[in-house]
Amino acid sequence: MNIDMYSASIPVFDRFLANLSGLLDKAEAHAESQDMADTKYVVSRLYADMAPLSSNVQFACDTARRCAARLAGEDPGSEADDEATLDELRARIRRTRDYLAGVDADRIRGTEDKTVLLETPMVTMEFTGHDYLLNFALPNFFFHVSISHGILRQQGVPIGKMDFMGAA
């Protein structure tokens, strides 16, 4: 099955990063209505051994940026992972969305069979572009966006499924 690798990646990442930013907007409004600091959300976790909201937003952004870069044959660069407020997390999302907007669609299209190496300190994984996008990058991205939604919901932010999904 052939898919348009660009259409299956960049617009999807962009839409859900916009939705994630909207979740952070709602969290900020909720914090203000409760007269509390929004940093409470930034450090919140679903469970003690899970990453906090800040890390989940960072991971979602990194996954989108690195996927686009790997498929396009570019250096994804890196970020400092030092965001401590909702506004700083939204700024990271904006930078990621700006990066994605600058990716040339023709550099992504036709990468279904491209070899993508994912190197970590513990293991090197080899994928085709198709398998990397559909079986690694997108599931990883959606995991972190979903966990971010769950953390905020658990903390009492009035959000639901349509806040996660966003407008079509």
UniProtKB/TrEMBL annotation:
PANTHER family: BLL2446 PROTEIN, DUF1993 DOMAIN-CONTAINING PROTEIN. It comes from Spectribacter acetivorans. This is DUF1993 domain-containing protein. Pfam families: DUF1993 (PF09351).
